[in-house]
Amino acid sequence: MMQPQRVLSEESSPTPDAAEGRIPQRPELLAPGVALLEILPDEDLFGYLKRARGGFEPRLYQQLLGAANAFKEGDASIGVAAADARSRDNARLLLARTRVGDLHAHPPLEDRLHVFMTEAIDTEAQALTADWTLGRLKDFLLSAEEAAVKSVCAGLGSDVIACAVKLMSDAELTALGSKVFHPLPGSHLGARGYLGARIQPNSPTDHPDDIRWQVFNGWSFAVGDVVLGTNPVSSSPTSVAAVEAALHDVLVTFGLEEVMPHCVLAHIDVQARVEELQPGTTGIWFQSIAGTDAANGTFDVTLEKMVEYAARRTGRFGLYFETGQGADATNGQHGGCDMVLLESRKYGFARALKRRVALARVGAGHEAEPWVHVNDVAGFIGPEVFRTREQLVRCCLEDIVMGKLHGLMIGLDICSTLHMDVTLDDLGWCQDQIAPASPGYLMALPTRNDPMLSYLTTSFQDHVRLRERWGTRVDDRMWAFFQQLGVIDAQGRPTEHFGDPRWVYAQYRRRKGDTRPDAELRAEAERGMAEVHARSVALAVGHGARPWEMVAGLEQEVRGHYEDAKAGIWTELSPRFIETISQAVRLRTQAVDRRDYILHPVSGERLEASSVSRVEALRLRREARWDAQIVISDGLDPRSLMDEGHLGPFLEALRRELEAHDYRVAPEHLVVSYGRVRAGYQVGELLFGDAADPLPRALIHVVGERPGSGHHSFSVYLTAPSGKGWTGAPRPVDHDLTRVIAGISDTSVRPEDAAREALRILGELCRG
User: Which stretches does the entry tag as region Disordered (predicted)?
Assistant: First the structure.
C-alpha cells in the first residue's frame, strides 16, 4: 500500500494535543446538562414531574430519562445529559422506583414507528411486569435463568428495555449479555461459546478482485462465518450487481451458498433492483435503520417500504440491519430523546420486522425461522457522539444487551474514527472488555484499517487472538470447511497454510476445475495480490511469532496510516491553494476553528452571516442564468483536495462533461472552510430557492473525506431538486435527495472517472 507523506500545509498549525493524536477536551462547549440535585424519598419519575411541574411535562420527562445515562457527548448536544454525577444518580433513583406499566403508558416519543414496534410485544407477557418497578425488573434480569428472561422480555417495549439498561453497571451488562443468546436458525451463529465474523471486503474502487482476495485472506485465518458483506463505493445497480456476483461466485464455488449469505450494503431499493435484474444473485438484504420516523426518512426508509421488503424474504436468508448510537442526533432527528433510548427503538423496529419475515415464511409454507440479525456500528460517527475508549465499551455493552433483550442476534463493529480519542492499541483493550458480554459476531478486515471507509475496526488477527483468549468458536459448519480447506488441522491448530491467501486462491481455482501445476497457480496468485496491493488494499499474508500477530512490515504500514490520518484531521485548507481555484468565492461556516468543527459537527452545517450575504449577493448578480453550482468544502481532510492530481483534474473533467451536455455551470467555485455536507444544502437554498421555478437546479458539492485509508480521498455529493424543491417544498433538502460518489483520488476512484459518473447521476436526478 502507498505510504503517504506526513506533511502539513505551510499554513497548518496543529495544536499540541492534536499533534499527539489526542482531541483536546473542551467541556465549556458542552450543553449545561440536566441538574437534579434534590429528590424526595420513594419519589418516582412521575411523582417528581408532578411536584416540579404540576403534572406530566414531556420535555422534562425526556431530560430525566436522558440524565440516567452514562455520560456521552451526544447526549450533551441533545440537552439530556446529566449535569453532574449527583444528578445522574438521582435520575437513576427516580427511574428505579418507576413502574414498568407507567413507562409503557408514557412513551417519550410517539410516532408511527412507535406504533409499529408495539405489534411485536406479547401482551400477556407485558401484563406480568406492569406492576414491577424498573429496579425490580433489573434485579430479575440479572438473577433469573435465560428462559425466564426471554419470556419476560417478550412483553417489554423498547423504551422499558432502554431504561433497564440505564440502571446497570458495565459488569452487570456483561453478566446479562453473557446469559442470553438467540442463535440464527440451523446454526450456532450467536450461540453460547461462539464468536462469528462478518468479512468486510471493502474496495476503494469496488474492484471484484480486491473483494475476492480479502475473502480468501479471511478464510486463510479461519475467519468469516456470518456474512460476506461489502460496503459499495457506487450504489448504481450495475456496480452493485458486479460486487454481488463476485461474492456469490466465491460462495457457489466452495459450495457454501446455503451455509452463509453474502450482501452488498447498498440501499435496500438497489438490492431489490439487482435481484430483479439477476435473480438469485443477492443474498441477505441489508438496510441501515434509525430510531425515529424522521431519521429513517433521511435514509429514504419508510415503514411501508420495509414491511413490503420483509414480506418478500421467504427464503433461507432474511434481513440484515445496521444501527449505531448517535445517528439520529447527528441527522438532527432525535426528537428530544437520548441516544440509548433511540438505539433501543432501532432494535424494536428490527424485532417487528423480524416478526414480519417469520409471517412471510409461514405464508410461503416454511418454518417460521427468520434469519435476521443486527450489526451495531458503535463508534463510526465520531467524537460528537462519544470520544473515549471507556465510552466505546459502555456503548457496546448497552447495545449488546438491548439487542438480546429484543430477541435479536446482535453483532458489533467495535470501531473508531481517526478523529476520536481512541488509538489502535485502545481497540484491542476495548475488544477484551466487550468479548465477555458475548456479541454474536464482529467485523473482520485484513488489518484494523478499512481501505475504503477510513475507520478502525476488528482485524482477522483480532479474531484469532480473541478465540484463543476467550475460548470462543467459529460456527461448526464453517470450522469443518476451514479444516477441509487445510488452513487448520483436525484439532483446530494452524497449519502451514494458515494466513496464506495464495493457498485459498489455489483451492478456489481447483474447485473451478483448474488443473495447472501448483507453482503456476501460486505465481498467478502473487501477481493478483500485487495488483490488489497496487490499488492500496492491504492483505495480511502470514503472521508473526504468534498466529494473531501481524508481520512487522504490515504492522508498520497500518500505524503509518494512523499517524498520517491524525495529521490530516488538523490540516487547514491553505489560502495559497484556494488561490489556484478559478474564480473562487471564499465562504466559511459557523465553526469557530477547526477544533470546534471536528468536535461539534453542527457548527459546520450552516454558513456564518457574512458568507450568507455573499451568496445572496451572488444570486442577485446572476439573475438565474445558471442551473448548476460547484461547491468545495475542506471536510475532515483538506489534503484530499490539495494533493496533486486530485481536485484540479476532477474540476476540469467535470466542467468539460457538464458543458458538453448543455448544463449551464456557474463560473464561480464556492469554497467553504470548515464545511460539511449540509452546508451545501444551505448554499443551494440561497442560490436556487424559488417557489415558481419547476426546473432542476444542480448542486455539486466536493467534500474532503475522513482520513485513514492512505488515499486522501474526497467525495462528491449531487443534489438536483427544482427551484421549488430548494425552498423546502414539499420537504427540506437533505441526504435522502442526494447521491454520492466516494473514494475519489489518484489512487482509488480516478477524478476523471468520477466526473463522468457525476454526469450520469445528475442525468438521473434531473430526469427524476
Answer: 1-25
Would you say 181 and 145 are in contact if contact means Cβ atoms under 8 Å apart?
no
DSSP string of 550-591, one letter each residue? PPHHHHHHHHHHHHHHHHHHTPPPPHHHHTTSTTEEEEEBS-
Give the ranges where 492-637 is alpha helix by DSSP (H): 501-511, 518-534, 552-569, 575-578, 594-599, 609-622
SS3 content of the chain, % helix, strand, coil (to 5): 45, 15, 40
First to last CA, the chain: 40
Domain segments of the chain: what residues?
29-98, 170-544, 571-766
Q: Residue 609 pLDDT more than 50?
A: yes
Q: What pLDDT sits at residue 348?
A: 98
In Å, how far are 6, 291, 321 from 299, measured between CA atoms?
A: 36, 11, 13
Task: State the Cα–Cα distance between residues 687 and 668, nearest whole angstrom.
Answer: 12
What predicted TM-score, i.e. pTM, was given to this entire model? 0.89
The pLDDT assigned to 445 comes to 97
Domain 170-544 class in CATH: alpha beta
**pLDDT greater than 70 at residue 462:** yes
CA quadruple 38, 42, 48, 52: dihedral, nearest 10: -50
The C-alpha cell of 186 is what?
A: 440451523
Query: In this predicted model, what pLDDT tens digit does every residue of 558-580 receive, in sequence order?
Result: 888 889 988 999 999 999 999 99
Q: What is the mean pLDDT of residues 350-366?
A: 98
What pLDDT score was predicted for residue 691?
A: 95
Do 227 and 443 meet the contact criterion of CB atoms below 8 Å apart?
Answer: no
Q: Is the pLDDT of residue 70 over 70?
A: yes
Residue 209 has pLDDT above 50, yes or no: yes
Amino acid (1-letter code) at residue 246: A
Burial 35-69 (b: 16+ CB within 10 A, else e): ebeebeeebbbbebbeeeeeeeeeeebbbbbbbbb
The answer to whether residue 30 scores a pLDDT higher than 70 is no
Report pLDDT digits (tens) over 249-287.
Answer: 999 999 999 999 999 999 999 999 999 999 999 999 999
Q: Is the peptide bond preceding residue 494 cis, with omega within 30 degrees of 0? A: no
Bridge-based pairing state of the strands 628-633 and 196-199: unpaired
For the stretch 716-721, contacts whose Cβ atoms lie closer than 8 Å and that sit 24 or more positions apart, written own/partner, are: 716/650, 716/740, 716/741, 716/744, 716/754, 716/758, 717/677, 717/680, 718/758, 718/761, 718/762, 718/765, 719/680, 719/681, 719/684, 719/765, 720/696, 720/762, 720/765, 720/766, 721/696, 721/697
Backbone φ and ψ for 416, nearest 5 degrees, come out as -150, 155
Among 191, 253, 193, smallest CA distance to 228 is for 253
Write down the number of H helices and E strands in the chain: 34, 16
- pLDDT one-digit tens code per residue, 162-191: 999 999 999 999 999 999 999 999 999 999
**419: pLDDT confidence band, cut at 50, 70 and 90?**
confident
Among 303, 211, 297, 298, residue whose Cα is nearest residue 251: 211
Q: What is the pLDDT of residue 183?
A: 98
Please enumerate in sequence order all residues whose Cβ is within 8 A of that of 247, keeping only pairs 6 or more positions apart, or say none. 201, 211, 215, 228, 230, 262, 263, 264, 283
The answer for residues whose C-beta is within 8 angstroms of residue 418's C-beta and 6 or more apart is 454, 455, 456, 562, 565, 566, 568, 569, 706, 707, 708
Task: Please state whether beta strands 372-378 and 409-414 pair in parallel, antiparallel, or not at all (unpaired).
Answer: parallel
What are the residues facing 285 on neighbouring strands? 319
Residue 25 has pLDDT above 50, yes or no: no
To which H or E segment does residue 702 belong? strand 698-704
Q: How far apart are CA 54 and CA 600, in angstroms?
A: 36
Q: Nine-digit cell at 423?
A: 488509538
pLDDT at 6 over 50: no
Pick the CATH number of 571-766 from 2.40.50.140, 1.10.357.20, 3.30.590.20, 3.40.50.11240: 3.40.50.11240
**Rounded Cα gap, residues 655 and 223, in angstroms:** 46
User: Residue 690 above 60 pLDDT?
Assistant: yes
| Pick from 410, 286, 294, 285: nearest CA to 344 | 410
